[in-house]
Amino acid sequence: MKKSIVKRSIVAAISVMAATGIARADSIRDTLSTHKLAALDGTTSSLNTYRGEVIVLNFWASWCAPCRRELPLLDQWNSAWTGRGARVIAISIDTDAKKAKRFAEEMKLTLPVMHDGPQGLARTLDIPSVPYTLLLDRDGNVIGEVKGSEESQLAALERKVESMLATRGVPQEAGMSGGSR
Amino acid sequence: MKKLRWLWVLGMAQVLMGCATVKPYEKENLADPIMSISSAEALRELKWLEAREGSTGGAGGAGGGCACK
Lengths: 181, 69
Fold this sequence. Notes:
- The structure holds 2 protein chains of 2 kinds.
- Chain A is built from 5 helices and 7 strands; from the N terminus they run αβββαβαβαββα.
- Chain A is of the alpha/beta class.
- Chain A has one domain (2-167): Glutaredoxin.
- Chain A has a 7-stranded mixed sheet with strand order 2-1-5-4-3-6-7, with helices on both faces.
- Chain A is elongated, with a radius of gyration of 18 Å.
- Helices cover 48% and strands 0% of the residues of chain B.
- Chain B has helices at 2-17, 37-53.
- By secondary structure, chain B is mainly alpha-helical.
């Protein structure tokens, strides 16, 4: 009798945790897809515009040295994936959009650069590091993340995107965080 | 003794109240070069050196401090 109560409690606890996790994932997907992002030219859009494409979402700032180092690499990825169903979107969390614009111009970045400031998505998602990179599938679900600019994790992310483009599915691959969001 | 302990507790509370957690996305001001202790210290040291030696421009500049290039 006692054992059965314990078992039921464990199952109930796991169910509640799973339901909470799913609800949180849905809420993050909705937040990401509907949040208005301003491009450096002043036009606004949301990630919904890119629904159907694999998105690598990179949070960066001009004051962050690792971000400045990794952005040229992300720009190369974006160029390689353009027209193949994936893209990289860089979201600047600089307070001043001019700093982001100046940096993007200096580096001759061709990837879409948005400005959202520190109080936008970064705060809503409470991002754990800068830079912070999320991988979204074609439905806008977060399926991977890279905290910081660890080369091996970025390489794993690139492989994952390439494999998604090849199979048009979501591969399971070790070496990169599976997206706790 | 008890009073001392309370004083210590109050002192620690005062010190700890000054601590704050800064989120990674809120570190823009902290990342500013002006917040670097070393660069400010280097400037101050240079100022002392210049005052002591009676010369200027010997560190990092093109000139040698003797009006010749």
